[in-house]
Design brief:
It is a single chain. The protein is an alpha+beta fold. The protein has 4 domains: 55 residues; 45 residues; 56 residues; 59 residues, Head domain of nucleotide exchange factor GrpE (Nucleotide Exchange Factor Grpe, Chain A, domain 2). It has 6 helices and 6 strands, in the order ααααααββββββ. A 3-stranded antiparallel sheet has the order 1-4-5. Strands 2-6-3 form a 3-stranded mixed sheet, with no helix packed on it. The longest helix is centred in the middle third of the chain and has 43 residues. It is elongated. About 4% of the residues have low confidence. Belongs to the GrpE family. It comes from Exidia glandulosa HHB12029.
Length: 224
């Protein structure tokens, strides 16, 4: 039984006695003890009520907690925005690079088909033969005119290729490179030539910018 309960019962018993006898029953010590007990009970009741009031309001509902939550949300949104911006810039760079490559190499098939025409013209220049029963003077004029016409056609064709970054290359004398050369045959290395060197070019190769459009068809020196 608590001290406050005992004091209350004592006071109740005193109140039930006649008024004249109450003065004799309540001693100064008992009165002081009763006042202390009632004061302590009141303070405990007040503290319990305050704790109950504090517990009724969650910490998350305080202005400070709400402000911290908003700051964290803003920081997260800023971080996401930075990542999104960086990803967008990367995607734009990739798209621009792919677009440039498509523009540079879009005519690859077209150029590859025309290469055969350039090969025919080159072959015609090599195998130009005089017609039968022609005088030397006539033959000379025909040869000169025919050669000039074929040569002009070939130059015009190569000029057209150059507009689209398609350029020929002759690897004779270079070291054999399987990425740019196609070996048709091997032959003993001529004097002064190292094994693995291109000694003959049957068909020149073509580059489109820094990419091999067609490998050069070559003969390669082999070691004895």
């Amino acid at each position: 039984m608590s001290a406050s309960t005992r004091a209350l019962r004592s006071c109740t018993g005193i109140l039930r006695t006649p008024i004249r006898s109450q003065a004799r029953l309540i001693s100064p010590v008992a009165a002081t003890r009763f006042r202390r007990t009632m004061s302590t009970g009141t303070e405990q009741t007040s503290d319990a009520a305050q704790q109950s009031a504090d517990g009724a309001q969650p910490a998350a509902d305080t202005p400070e907690a709400k402000l911290k939550a908003k700051d964290a949300e803003i920081a997260d949104l800023k971080s996401r925005l930075r990542y999104a911006q960086a990803d967008l810039i990367n995607q734009q760079k990739i798209a621009a690079r792919e677009k440039e490559q498509q523009r540079d190499f879009a005519i690859s098939r077209f150029a590859l088909d025309l290469l055969e025409t350039a090969d025919v013209l080159s072959l015609a220049l090599r195998s130009l033969a005089p017609p039968a029963n022609a005088s030397p003077e006539t033959q000379s004029k025909l040869d000169e005119g025919l050669r000039a016409g074929i040569d002009m056609t070939q130059k015009q064709l190569l000029s057209t290729f150059a507009k689209y970054n398609v350029v020929p290359f002759d690897p004779t004398g270079e070291k054999f490179d399987p990425n740019r050369h196609e070996a048709l045959y091997e032959a003993p290395a001529p004097p002064g030539k190292e094994p693995g060197t291109v000694i003959d070019c049957q068909k020149v190769g073509y580059l489109i910018k820094d990419r091999t459009l067609r490998a050069a068809q070559v003969g390669v020196a082999r070691s004895e």
